[in-house]
Amino acid sequence: MTDPAARTQDALATAAALRADRPDWWRDAVYYTVYPRSFADGNGDGIGDLPGLTSRLDHLVDLGVDAVWLGAFYRSPMVDGGYDVADHTDVDPEFGTLADFDAMTAAAHERGLKVTIDVIPNHVSDQHPWFVEALTAAPGSPARERFIFCDGRGPGGDEPPNNWVACFGGSAWARVPDGQWYLHLFTPQQPDLNWENPEVVAEYDRVLRFWLNRGVDGLRVDVAHGMAKPNPLRDMTIFPEPGQPRVAEDPRLDQDGVHEHLRGFRRVLDTYPGTMAVGEVWVESDERLARYVRPDELHLTFNFKLVEAEWGAAAYRAAIDGSLRAMADVGAPCSWVLTNHDIPRPVTRYGDGDIELGRRRARAAALVQLSLPGSVYLYQGDELGLDNVDDLPVEALRDPTWENSGHTVRGRDGVRVPIPWSGDAPPYGFGGADTWLPMPTRWAGLTAEAQAADADSTLSLHRRALEIRRASPQLGRGTLTWLDSPADVLAYRCAAEGHPDIEVWLNSSADSIAPPSAATPLLASGPLGANGSIPPDTAAWFLGPDPR
Ligand code: GLC
Ligand code: CA
Known about the structure:
Blueprint: H1 4-21, E1 30-34, H2 50-55, H3 57-63, E2 67-70, E3 74-75, E4 87-91, H4 98-110, E5 114-119, H5 129-136, H6 142-145, E6 149-150, E7 173-175, E8 181-183, H7 198-212, E9 218-221, H8 258-270, E10 276-279, H9 286-290, E11 300-303, H10 305-308, H11 313-330, E12 335-337, H12 346-349, H13 355-369, E13 375-379, H14 400-404, H15 448-452, H16 458-471, E14 479-482, E15 489-495, E16 502-507, E17 520-524, E18 538-543
Parallel strand pairs: 1-2, 1-13, 2-5, 5-9, 9-10, 10-11, 11-12, 12-13
Antiparallel strand pairs: 3-4, 6-8, 7-8, 14-15, 15-16, 16-18, 17-18
Bound molecules: alpha-D-glucopyranose and calcium ion.
The site of alpha-D-glucopyranose has 9 residues, from loops.
């Protein structure tokens, strides 16, 4: 038997060699977002896990993505789906073991896939040993200094220290028995860390190195814009919809101090050549976003403007243009996102209640997303054209938003329903019959197996698009130039030296439009009309004349 330590060294060498091949692989990579609870269940308990993921890695290879972004899988009481971390250097037993993680990473690397993982630095679980210790420690003690504990306002300190609201509703402060309050931007079970405390900085240095030493290729930094709080903790402006973090001058988020902490992360990453980090940053302006990807900070930050854009050419153009400009100023590529485990699926967003319309539009949106310069984040199930499951029985709901909103907001469970792999009835080959969220019978025709056999399926469309993208430096690594186009039509040219241009057309108008002249269709999100005309709610890629 080989010595496990030697085996680990081999695995690390493979990982490093893969990155050394192209150290800036991350700039135009296509990342596939895995929400571990819902991807694949290896042991039949109805909950996705790491062995399940390993067993389905070939789906990612066949799809043609470059990397996995694996959502939170750490030891956690699961109040917020694992984003309440009790031990950042261990795997939650629900998902498997560290050995399962190593096996998954090795299997991914063998297939040429990079592995990137979540890091959750803004808060920990209230079950984290630090917080347990802080609760029994006295006000002002070093154990409390790792968090943001304050005395309250008003007589007896009975009022919270300020008026901040939590992102899942309610006050952002919770009171402990001795009368002090602690800050939690998310649920009360997710106390915010105090990044002014060098002990916190040192702990995350350890966490980052722990995973980088196991061969991971990159990080996704959860709530990267939350890691610094203003001093003093001034009140926020209460907007009509409390709980929405995306407002200008919100003192809870996007404070200047975050950048120093992110530079610290970058210094660690730079000692592991070819690794990267992407930030989850929700800010209003493209310019504020660009500050996170200055040369000594994060490599990437999600560009959420396509998430916020309404369906259609005008909104898409504004979103794309603003992001490209702001990122170009700091020399960083964009990272295009249409959805993730927190955001309703495009099929549902674009359908206005009509799933088929939504699916047509989501397929068109995918061809736009996959053509743009920069990197792309796909979310599991979007390659299958899944819709949100917005009719989950209320007793099944797990998102803390449901309880915290007094049963008025269902939250994000509808985008987290397990993936249908095969067969024609739930659980569709996912694993155990009793899936943690029930799967709808209407997905019978949408399994990966069924779609792989159908050349016109959404899965086949994604595979073909990724195959073309991989072979075409014009896409992802190219430059974008807008073309003149009729109203409600988006048109641009993707160019790379020495290659024919690829033109991308998206028709969000009500009428068919003529295709570009002197260009041949490469791929379309739906059937083209007579003479190659582009019907409504359709996008197409066209290949221009050879430049030679
Ligand atoms: C991020 C995660 C989300 C989580 C929140 C709190 O937004 O994507 O799932 O609830 O952070 O950690
Ligand atoms: Ca399982």
